[in-house]
Amino acid sequence: MGPYEYVVEDMNGDYAFLRRTDIYDAGEPMMIAVALLPDDVDVGTKLHWENMMYSVIG
Predict the structure, then answer these.
(1) How far is CA 42 from CA 1, 2, 25, 34, in A?
(2) How many C-alpha atoms does 13 have within 13 Å on its Cβ side?
(3) Staple partner for 29: which of 5, 16, 17, 50, CB 3.0–4.6 Å?
(4) The pTM is what?
(5) Hey, where are the domains in the chain?
């Protein structure tokens, strides 16, 4: 699986809402626990997911 690319669209408490950016029409945002994301994540942050780990893109 993967790699996939996401952007953080919203953050609400302990959860972030991610939308895939590497495909057209990614559908609804995916809700994921903020604890699984890198520490410096905020709305608008671009993420790369591979091997069950998220990393910030550039």
Answers:
(1) 25, 22, 23, 10
(2) 2
(3) 17
(4) 0.86
(5) 4-56
